[in-house]
Amino acid sequence: MNQSGVVMPNTIGDLALLAPAVVVAEGFTEHLRQESLLKTGALQNAIFNSANFSSIATDAKGVIQIFNVGAERMLGYAAADVLNTITPADISDAQELLARARLLSAELETPIAPGFEALVFKASRGIEDIYELTYIRKDGSRFPAVVSVTALRDDQGGIIGYLLIGTDNTARKQIEAERMQLGQRLRDQQFYTRSLFESNIDALMTTDPSGIITDVNKQMEALTGCTRDELIGAPFKNYFTDPERAEAGIKLVLSKNKVTNYELTARDRDGRETVVSYNATTFYDRDRRLQGVFAAARDITERKLAEAQILNLALHDTLTGLPNRRLLNDRLAQAMTASKRNASHGALIFLDLDNFKPLNDTHGHYVGDLLLIEVAQRICGCVRAVDDIARFGGDEFVVILRELGKNHDEAVTQSGHIAEKIRASLDEPYVLKVKLEAKADTIVEHHCSSSIGVALFLDHEIEVEQVIKWADLAMYQAKEAGGNTIRFFDA
Questions:
Q1: Which of 144, 168, 192 is the last residue of a domain?
Q2: ∠ CA 216-249-292 to the nearest 5 degrees?
Q3: Residue 387, CB-side half-sphere exposure with 13 Å CA sphere
């Protein structure tokens, strides 16, 4: 026994005893090798005859020598139909072979024939070759296949044939086609959605939950004067005159899931401002996870102008542009409140034109309207910036005088001075240019004075209508005194 514990023979007798054991061992090894070879052959045979793929072996010229079960099932031929008769090129699409030959000729810079040579040329040069090909079944039907080609060589390396292993690619092609269709439908849907997004008359945008813009349409670019790339990634609030209100709008949507007619004023990069009606809603992914806010901002500038015009018409006289009686009441109430709060006198001047009716009777209402317009202009030239003028109705006008001071006598003096300026101005002759269609302009001269009543107020616990009544009474006193004069109301 050596140091490793193995028993070593020391004598010829020992060798003789060991010899039978050696022979038995060698026999066992050979048996294992033969069994392995048998298993390998069986495995190769099982693979070659598998029905899951076609195995077609040819000689060096391409004539089919082996046609396995898989090939029979895929192509509909019996092995006897094709052996020593045709080449794989005869069951392949001719146009594809022609195209393949052209591509390989260009790629490898050598002329390649479009038949069997096109199928095996790369393999014949030792280049791994796997390609797609359309096989043609015996009944004429076609199916896509993926083909792997291997050159078969003898012991000296010479090519003795080719092995073409093919798998039916129909299912994968169908999946690819369905994916392509799905992808096309998705692209179509995205295009359709984008078209709707871009064609909307409103400025549209999406933001993440924190108010960062994630997408916009062309209208939003026009509204802000910025490009889509500039807007995406920027805070939504940055493009409005009141960022805090804009941010509050986003928070309101997130809390209520929807907001409508929320007014904001957008400001573009050049400072131009646009009043918009902001309408927004939250949006989610398919798992109902919040993604952000979808918002539409509609330009309501024209609407606001129309509303202002309607309000102006409701509160102003259409002929002279002066406040009407409705607005007069509101402004007189404000003046009385301020007078009481500041302990400063105010006054109401009420005037009625003298000798106005004869003008209407003689020349018609059109000429009378011209005179009323000039009366309004003359009154405006007599009052202070803090005062208000209104057309009470017909040929009656009212002036509200503010901030006449705390001293009563001084207030009387100031209001009297303004009233006198108005009286003197309205007493000047009127020269009216009358334009008639298809006729020369006509000049109408008329003298029309005024009767003026003045009522002071300070801290009286009275209504607006009472002050108007006081001034009206004083005006009638002036009228009864012959007109073209001023009277103060004295309780």
A1: 168
A2: 50
A3: 22
Polymer length of the chain: 491
User: Could you tell me if 348 and 482 lie in one domain?
Assistant: yes
- Measured CA to CA, the distance from residue 349 to residue 241 in angstroms comes to 42
| β-bridge partners, 445 | 431
For residues 124 and 257, state if they share a domain. Answer: no
Q: Rounded to 5 degrees, what angle do the CA atoms 368, 373, 379 make?
A: 125
| Same domain for 455 and 353 | yes
Residue 415 lies in a domain: yes
Q: pLDDT tens digits, residue range 265-318?
A: 999 999 999 999 999 999 999 899 999 999 999 998 888 888 888 887 888 888
Q: Following CA atoms 32, 38, 39, 42 in sequence, which dihedral angle do they give, to the nearest 10 degrees?
A: 180
Catalytic sites, residue numbers = 395
- 200's tokens: 């909307």
Which pTM does this prediction carry? 0.50
* Inside any domain, residue 76: yes
Q: Please, what is the Cα angle at 188 between 185 and 191, to 5 degrees?
A: 150
Residue 90 per-residue DSSP state: G
